[in-house]
């Protein structure tokens, strides 16, 4: 049994507060759905956004062979803009490979109107071996793609999210 992790950072051209509010606060998901139109078909949430909250995100089938991403919040610290969650993928190649995965995402201010999104994905594969670098990159890029879509939406609709 091998536990592995991959960490990436992404420079984002919106404030930490706005990125956190739209993508990770655990509140209203309507703007997140607008931002990720074509990527995410729906999000259902059971809970108040804090630890134990379960979210079910249906992925657009034209985008990925992964069908559903179920998430359970392990920790959320709004002051530190950090959320740690465990995930289960239903359907697709990643579901056949991953035994478990936990993400920790932190949004850090990086000057006026900018931030850095830091993501760590800890995972364990069913076969006990680490993912290849290419598959590991695909795994983390799924989360980074969501951040990019939110960034693009906020930049294109500056007055909508305040």
UniProtKB/TrEMBL annotation:
InterPro entries: Bet_v_I/MLP (IPR000916), Bet_v_I_allergen (IPR024949), Plant_def-hormone_signal (IPR050279), START-like_dom_sf (IPR023393). Its main location: nucleus. Residues 1-157 form the Bet v I/Major latex protein domain. It comes from the Eukaryota. GO terms for cellular component: nucleus. It is found in: Nucleus. SMART domains: Bet_v_1. It holds the Pfam family Bet_v_1. PANTHER family: OS08G0374000 PROTEIN-RELATED, OS12G0555100 PROTEIN. Belongs to the BetVI family. This is Bet v I/Major latex protein domain-containing protein.
